[in-house]
Design a protein that fits this description.
Blueprint lengths: L1 H23 L18 E5 L2 E8 L13 E9 L5 E7 L3 E7 L10 E3 L4 E4 L5 E7 L8 E8 L3 E9 L13
Parallel strand pairs: 2-10
Antiparallel strand pairs: 1-2, 2-3, 3-7, 3-8, 4-6, 4-9, 5-8, 9-10
Length: 175
């Protein structure tokens, strides 16, 4: 029985050492991103070694987006390949153009770097996409064709959805 406990103790110590070694090498750290854990809403796709997740147009606030509005769009990109890539542009027939902008809204002309094994989140408060001068009203839930161009992986076209607004519940009149 003591021999069994000794074997279990050695296995537990070996497993602990393995976990510590993986953490020290960057495996299991804060930057780790597990693809099966992606459960976010929005359009998902793939082009070459690039995973596209959570692609959507920002939800309209008080009313639908109107013709002429500049509309933010967000997407997560993950490079599963062995070489860095770059998002170089996007377009949609629903807008005059699509710009890559930084957190302050300044247009980025050089694209967005997509390092190997890293999640790049194009979202509010960070670098993201903006559909300029949309040519129609866009309500939450509406779809539109959207094309993304990458330096190495190529081009992919899919439907992107305007996120459905979430409204606060009004107080119950009987409550």
């Amino acid at each position: 029985m003591t021999a069994l406990f000794a074997v279990r103790r050695r296995c537990a110590l070996a497993a602990s050492a393995l976990v510590l070694a993986m953490t020290a090498n960057g495996c299991g750290g804060d930057d780790e991103f597990s693809l099966p854990d992606w459960e976010a809403p929005g359009q998902n796709g793939r082009v070459g070694d690039l995973m596209i997740r959570y692609a959507h147009v920002a939800e309209p606030k008080d009313e639908p987006w109107q013709s002429g509005d500049d509309v933010p769009a967000y997407v997560w990109l993950y490079n599963k390949g062995d070489k860095a890539d770059k998002l170089v542009g996007a377009e949609t027939p629903a807008a005059a153009s699509v710009d890559l902008v930084d957190a302050d809204g300044k247009v980025l002309t050089g694209g967005v770097e997509l390092p190997v094994g890293r999640l790049v989140q194009l979202e509010p408060g960070k670098t993201h996409l903006v559909l300029r001068d949309v040519n129609r009203q866009i309500r939450g839930g509406d779809f539109m064709e959207f094309t993304m161009r990458f330096e190495k992986a190529g081009t992919t076209t899919f439907n992107i959805q305007a996120q459905v607004p979430t409204y606060e519940e009004s107080p119950s009149p009987t409550g």
